[in-house]
Amino acid sequence: VQLVESGGGLVRTGESLRLSCAASESIFKLNAMGWYRQAPGKERELVATISKTGITYYADTVKGRFTIFRNIADNTLNLRMSSLKPEDTAMYSCAAQSDPQKGYDSWGQGTQVTVSS
């Protein structure tokens, strides 16, 4: 499945942003989808995931501020981000897992989120 992210940009501390990830095929059949981020000089980190049954997981650093959700009708994965902080600045990428026995096997190119102080 091909994934294309959108919605990144430059915002100020405390503001909100919504990222979207458009999939080339039905996301309903995917085992899981998730958002990752990578800041300059740092390793990629998991932000949030959502399973096929809708179970969500959030990293402690974003819990209570970010919400991951799917729109099955238009095959998109979304990430609503609020109360953004400068430390949220990173390249955000979405990922998809087709086979539950394997890891995420499809990745998007990413969308940049920059939060100014």
What does this structure look like?
This protein is mostly beta strands and 117 residues long. Helices cover 0% and strands 51% of the residues. It has no helices and eleven strands. The protein has strands spanning 3-6, 9-12, 17-23, 32-38, 45-51, 56-58, 66-71, 76-81, 90-97, 106-107, 111-116. The strands form two sheets. Strands 2, 4, 5, 6, 9, 10 and 11 form a seven-stranded mixed beta sheet that branches. A four-stranded antiparallel beta sheet has the order 1-3-8-7, with no helix packed on it. A hairpin with a 4-residue loop joins strand 5 and strand 6 (56-58). It is globular. The chain starts with a strand and ends with a strand. The model has no long low-confidence stretch (mean pLDDT 96).
Q: Which tags fit this structure?
A:
globular; 117 residues; 51% strand; mainly beta; 7-stranded mixed β-sheet
Layout: helices, strands, pairs:
Blueprint: E1 3-6, E2 9-12, E3 17-23, E4 32-38, E5 45-51, E6 56-58, E7 66-71, E8 76-81, E9 90-97, E10 106-107, E11 111-116
Parallel strand pairs: 2-11
Antiparallel strand pairs: 1-3, 3-8, 4-5, 4-9, 5-6, 7-8, 9-10, 9-11
Q: Can you give me a brief rundown of this structure?
A:
By secondary structure, this protein is mainly beta.
Structural classification: mainly beta
Which residues sit in consecutive blocks of at least 5 with pLDDT less than 50?
A: none
End-to-end gap = 37 Å
Beta-strand content bin: over 45%
**What is the 3D form?**
globular
- In helices, the fraction of residues equals under 10%
Radius of gyration: 13 Å
Mean pLDDT: 96
SSE ordering: EEEEEEEEEEE
The major sheet is characterized as: 7 strands, mixed
What is the count of helical runs?
0
How many individual β-strands? Answer: 11
